[in-house]
Design goal:
single chain; Elongation Factor Tu (Ef-tu), domain 3; OB fold (Dihydrolipoamide Acetyltransferase, E2P); 3 domains; six-stranded antiparallel β-barrel; 12 strands; MdtA-like_BSH; coiled coil
C-alpha cells in the first residue's frame, strides 16, 4: 500500500496557497476601499484612570462604593477611623476655651491695674499739694511718686499679658483648625466624576499614607491608541478627524479627533540609513472621543475594547460613506 503522505502534503500546500492569495486579495480590497488620505490601524479603547488614595495612614472604617458604581465629583468614597482624631479635637477645643478665659482674665487684670494707677495718681497729687503747704515731707511725696510709677509699670505688664493670652488663643484655634483638616483628610471623596473600576481595600484594613483605596475611570477622557508608520504620521494633524470602529459594534462609526502624536518612535531599528528601515519606525497616536458624546453614552463606555481607528491624513479628508458617523440610540 502506497503512502498517502505526498497527497496530504500536496493538499495542504494548495490550501495554503489559496489562503494566502485570498488574504492578499482581501487586503487589496481593504486598501482600495480607503481614500489616499485615510489610514487605518488596530487599537484598543483606553480610559484615563484616577486613584483615590489616603493622604494619611489609618484603618479603613467604611467603604461607601462598589465596583461599577458611578460617582459624582466630591461623592464620599471611604472613611478612615476617626476615634483618636476626634478625641484630639475635643482636647484642642477645650484648650481654646481655656485660652479665651485666659484672655478675659488678662483684660480684667489690666482694668484692675489701671484702677490702682488712677488711685496712685490721686495720692501723688494730694501728697504734692500737702508738701507745697508744708503739711507733708518731700520723702512722703517721693514715696507716692514711686508708687505711681510702680502702678504704671503694672498696667504695661498687664497689657502685655493680654497680648500673650490672645496669642495663646490663636495658637489653640489654629490647632483646632489643623485637627479638623486632618478629620477632613480621613474622609476620602471622588476627585472627579467617574465609574469605580477597582475597590482595592476592605473595611478593617490598615492603609499607609498614599495607599490606594479605589480606582476610578474618568469617562470624559476616553481614547484609542494606535501606531502609525513614518510615511503616515508625518501627515497626521493634531485636532484632525478620525473614526473608531469597535469589534463589539462593527456597524457603528464613532467620530473622534487626533489628540496626541508622539515625538519619538516607539519601535526603532539600530540604523535608519535606508528608506526601508525608516518605514519600520512606528509612532504612537491617540484619537480621543468628545466628552459631550461620552456623556450621552456613559453607561456603554468600557476600557479595553478592541477595534480599528481610521485617521485622516491632511486637512481635507473625503471620508467614504461607510465611515460616516453612525451611532446607536443612547437609550437602547
Amino acid at each position: 500500500m502506497k503512502s498517502k503522505l505526498p497527497v496530504v502534503l500536496a493538499v495542504v500546500a494548495v490550501a495554503a496557497a489559496l489562503g494566502y492569495a485570498g488574504w492578499r486579495h482581501a487586503g487589496a480590497l481593504r486598501a482600495e476601499a480607503l481614500p489616499e488620505n485615510v489610514t487605518v490601524a488596530n487599537g484598543r479603547i483606553e480610559v484615563e484612570r484616577v486613584d483615590v488614595s489616603a493622604k494619611l495612614a489609618g484603618r479603613v472604617a467604611t467603604i461607601a462604593v462598589r465596583e461599577g458604581d458611578y460617582l459624582d465629583k466630591g461623592a464620599p468614597v471611604a472613611e478612615l477611623d476617626q476615634v483618636q482624631t476626634r478625641a484630639e479635637l475635643a482636647a484642642a477645643e477645650a484648650e481654646v476655651e481655656r485660652a479665651f478665659q485666659g484672655v478675659a482674665q488678662a483684660r480684667a487684670a489690666v482694668a484692675s491695674r489701671e484702677a490702682e494707677l488712677a488711685l496712685a495718681e490721686v495720692q501723688l497729687k494730694r501728697s504734692e499739694e500737702l508738701r507745697d503747704r508744708d503739711f507733708a515731707t518731700q520723702a512722703e511725696a517721693d514715696q507716692r511718686l514711686a508708687a505711681r510709677n510702680v502702678a504704671a509699670a503694672a498696667v504695661d505688664a498687664a497689657k502685655a499679658a493680654v497680648g500673650g493670652a490672645d496669642a495663646a488663643r490663636k495658637v489653640a484655634e489654629a490647632d483646632v483648625a489643623r485637627i479638623r483638616a486632618v478629620l477632613a483628610d480621613l474622609v476620602l471623596t471622588a476627585p472627579i466624576a467617574g465609574r469605580v473600576e477597582y475597590k482595592l481595600v476592605q473595611p478593617g484594613e490598615v492603609v499607609a499614607a498614599g495607599g490606594r483605596v479605589v480606582t476610578l475611570l474618568d469617562l470624559t477622557d476616553v481614547s484609542m491608541t494606535v501606531f502609525l508608520p513614518t510615511s503616515s504620521v508625518g501627515r497626521v494633524r493634531l485636532g484632525g478627524e478620525a473614526r473608531i470602529v469597535l469589534d463589539a459594534g462593527p456597524d457603528y462609526v464613532i467620530p473622534a479627533t487626533v489628540t496626541f502624536v508622539a515625538a519619538e518612535a516607539q519601535f526603532t531599528p539600530k540604523t535608519v540609513e535606508t528608506s526601508a528601515e525608516r518605514e519600520k519606525l512606528m509612532y504612537r497616536v491617540k484619537v480621543g472621543i468628545a466628552p459631550e458624546l461620552l456623556a450621552r453614552y456613559r453607561d456603554y463606555v468600557k476600557a479595553g475594547l478592541t477595534g480599528v481607528a481610521y485617521v485622516g491624513l491632511g486637512p481635507d479628508v473625503a471620508w467614504p460613506e461607510r465611515l460616516a458617523p453612525r451611532l446607536p440610540d443612547a437609550g437602547s
